[in-house]
Specification:
With about 90 residues, the protein is mainly alpha-helical. It folds into two domains: about 1-50; about 55-85, no CATH class. Helix content is about 70%, strand content about 5%. It has helices at about 5-25, 30-50, 55-60, 75-80; strands at about 70, 85. A two-stranded parallel sheet has the order 1-2. The longest helix has 23 residues, at about 30-50.
């Protein structure tokens, strides 16, 4: 899944969860708007941190069909659970 698909899934899950919590009286609609807005703003930050990490970059490259093998150091190879990544 690409980042847009993940964020779309997150928004959908937030809508469903928010509807449930507001309908049960656990939160008010204003509380939920604030919480979901914060999550929607912070999720891309977390995603960017992962994507721009060494492990995230290698995972992206390993997912490319034209890449047959990635050779790296043992510490980095452990971070990526992919058959194309070796030491």
């Amino acid at each position: 899944m690409n980042p847009d698909q993940w964020l779309s899934l997150l928004r959908t899950l937030l809508k469903i969860g928010g509807m449930f919590l507001v309908s049960k009286g656990v939160l008010t609609d204003v509380d939920w708007t604030t919480i979901s807005g914060a999550v929607i703003m912070l999720a891309p930050v977390g995603w960017d941190i992962y994507v721009h990490s060494k492990a995230g970059k290698l995972a992206s490259v390993a997912a490319m069909p034209e890449v047959k093998k990635i050779v790296t150091d043992p510490e980095t190879a452990v971070e990526i659970d992919h058959p194309k990544v070796t030491t």
